[in-house]
Automatic annotation (TrEMBL):
It is an enzyme of class 3 (hydrolase). This is SprT family zinc-dependent metalloprotease. It comes from Tumidithrix elongata BACA0141. Keywords: Hydrolase, Metalloprotease, Protease. Residues 38-249 form the YgjP-like metallopeptidase domain. Pfam families: YgjP-like. Transmembrane segments: none annotated. Its EC number is 3.4.-.-. InterPro entries: UTP_pyrophosphatase-like, YgjP-like_metallopeptidase. The keyword Cell inner membrane does not apply. The lineage of its organism: Bacteria, Bacillati, Cyanobacteriota, Cyanophyceae, Pseudanabaenales. The keyword Hydrolase applies. GO terms for molecular function: metallopeptidase activity.
Amino acid sequence: MFVACHLTILTVSMVTPKLPANLTDLPEYQLRVSPKAKHMRLSVSLDKGLEVVVPENFDHRRILEFLVQKRSWIEKALQQVDQKREYLAAQSPDRLPETIYLGAIAETWQVEYLSANSKFITAKEQKGQKILVTGNVENIEAGKALLRQWLNRKAQKELIPWLRKVSVAARLPYRQTSVRGQKTLWASCSSSKNISLNFKLLFLEPDAVNYVFIHELCHTIHMNHSAKFWALVSKYEPNYLKLDRSLNQAWQIIPAWV
Ligand SMILES: [Zn+2]
């Protein structure tokens, strides 16, 4: 659903000569006036950096005070964003991977590329957990798409039988299952009890994958996130809260090329 945007963004530089010494080294921030905001708040993100959100008709002089108060939180958050940025850069999204580590099944695959005079590009599994990619390997996007297809097949082979086992052990049957490469979901369960799995689950820790399976299988009983649903989940996975939270961080494990 698209919601019309009421938000205005203006960039303000923090550094003005009149400020006392302890204020001059505060980071730059973007100011966003939001009619929906009730209080002043801060956010730090990879794309926007430090953002200060204030309600309409807000006394802007209070912003400085707030920034000084929250200085240590801001520094920590900005450091984390820097780490993310470095991590993503190290992943080189513009290059094809030489190794693929699938944490869920503890397998490391080496990828070799063989340039051939062809329009096409193919991938073949070889002995010793090797993938040989042959053809137009200069076409990075085609190479990435090919490796994603390989991941999809791998997930069908590894994740579907695993889900079946968990389902049988928990006595929570489902109808059908499919594997996709969803952008925002690890998995989903429809009202007709069809479960769809994301092949990116292959990169997670086994505990996290197991939790995702339990979570979706419990949706075959409760199609919501009610207290009853969570009570059922906790019956099968007492550590569900920690695992659920770990999924929010798990994007970090997914290589950029995926
Ligand atoms: Zn759910």
